[in-house]
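Review form for a predicted model. The reviewer records the input and the model, then writes brief findings.
Reviewer: anonymous (R2)
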Amino acid sequence: MRPPERTLMNERIPRFYRELVVINEHGENLGTMEADKALALAHEAELDLVLVNQNVRPPVARIVDHGKYQYEQEKREREGKKKKTVSELKAVRMRPGTDDHDLEVKLRNVIRFLNEGHKVKCSVLFRSREITRPEMGRQALERFVQATQDIAVVEREPNVDGRFMIMILAPKPGAAQAAKKAQEAEQPEPASETTGETAK
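Model under review:
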């Protein structure tokens, strides 16, 4: 396991960085100055001089409380990971003769997958001579398209591939977040206790 990289700050900033663009603790750009002067300003403010971007010339350093700065960086990273949705390709399979009840169950699964931010591969399996009537499979897939038109787009149109007719639905941008907010709004608020004196 690779050890964590040390933050380049204060006296650990390489000496070959003779000049730095300095940003103070209020986020104000102080312009370019010698590294020694920037370090003196940080010490005068009883803060740290932290190198935040060494990929530009001259590099950028900030005068900050390093502990607080590191905490905020880690907090932003955690929030970014929470917001990031890992999309998977879910699959739903049916037959041309699948009855209405089973289709409804599969449709509910499709809607749930889409609301979770996943793409869905919907496929119809044809057996023996069923392949000669592809319109039966297309009707089932079209039913899914109509039922999910508010939350999904057809990424791959229904197409016969061997013994399968395959269609891929993808969630519309923002649809998953909207569904989550709607679900949260429907949650009942906890009953609050009421107190009061009995009227005499």
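Findings: Residues 141 and 180 are 25 Å apart (CA to CA).
Further findings: The chain has two domains: 10-78, 89-183.
Recommendation: see findings above.
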